[in-house]
């Protein structure tokens, strides 16, 4: 079911800072099951396509540059109410505004380098997951 899956990326800043294990531990401890996961690096074209919704925004170029500067961990997560529960787990985009104990409060350093991406809707979770994974890569 669509509402049981969401998509996430551990972003280059969190990968560079050695937070993959801590973030994955927090995700699984919160009841999510990982159904697909890989360490990969986005090309410029990948990042421009994935973030096309932000193309007209002033931060688009910086976002693409940031997301291509190093590897990411892409994952599809499963749990009842996955999108909403994961958005709560990651916290506000600005780590200063994020609730204590959230992933961004623990691991993000700024609004721009905020450690993780989480889909904002069931529809986007499906689109984003399909962008990074073929059906045979999901379990």
UniProtKB/TrEMBL annotation:
Please state where this protein is localized: Cytoplasm
GO BP? CTP biosynthetic process; GTP biosynthetic process; UTP biosynthetic process
Q: Which SUPFAM superfamilies match?
A: Nucleoside diphosphate kinase, NDK (SSF54919)
Q: Name one GO molecular function term.
A: ATP binding
| Residue stretches making up the Nucleoside diphosphate kinase-like domain | 3-137
The annotated active site, in chain numbering, is 117 (pros-phosphohistidine intermediate)
Name its co-factor(s). Answer: Mg(2+)
Q: Which residues bind ATP?
A: 11, 59, 87, 93, 104, 114
For this UniProt record, give its keywords in alphabetical order, as a comma-separated list: ATP-binding, Cytoplasm, Kinase, Magnesium, Metal-binding, Nucleotide metabolism, Nucleotide-binding, Phosphoprotein, Transferase
Give the reaction(s) catalysed: a ribonucleoside 5'-diphosphate + ATP = a ribonucleoside 5'-triphosphate + ADP; a 2'-deoxyribonucleoside 5'-diphosphate + ATP = a 2'-deoxyribonucleoside 5'-triphosphate + ADP
Give the matching HAMAP family: NDP_kinase
Q: What does this protein do?
A: Major role in the synthesis of nucleoside triphosphates other than ATP. The ATP gamma phosphate is transferred to the NDP beta phosphate via a ping-pong mechanism, using a phosphorylated active-site intermediate.
Q: What family is this protein classified in?
A: Belongs to the NDK family.
Q: How does it assemble?
A: Homotetramer.
Identification of the protein by name: Nucleoside diphosphate kinase
**Which species is the source of this protein?**
Christiangramia sediminis
Q: Which gene encodes it?
A: ndk
């Amino acid at each position: 079911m669509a509402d049981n899956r969401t998509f996430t990326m551990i972003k280059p800043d969190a990968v560079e800072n050695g937070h993959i294990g801590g973030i994955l531990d927090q995700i699984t401890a919160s009841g999510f099951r990982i159904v697909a996961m890989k360490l990969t690096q986005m090309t410029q074209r990948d990042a421009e396509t994935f973030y096309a919704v932000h193309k007209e925004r002033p931060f688009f170029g910086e976002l693409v540059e940031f997301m291509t500067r190093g590897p990411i961990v892409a994952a599809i997560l499963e749990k009842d109410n996955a999108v909403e529960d994961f958005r709560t787990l990651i916290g506000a985009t600005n780590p200063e505004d994020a609730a204590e104990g959230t992933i961004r409060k623990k691991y993000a350093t700024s609004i721009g380098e905020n450690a993780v991406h989480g889909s904002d809707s069931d529809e986007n979770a499906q689109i984003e997951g399909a962008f990074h994974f073929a059906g045979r890569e999901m379990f």
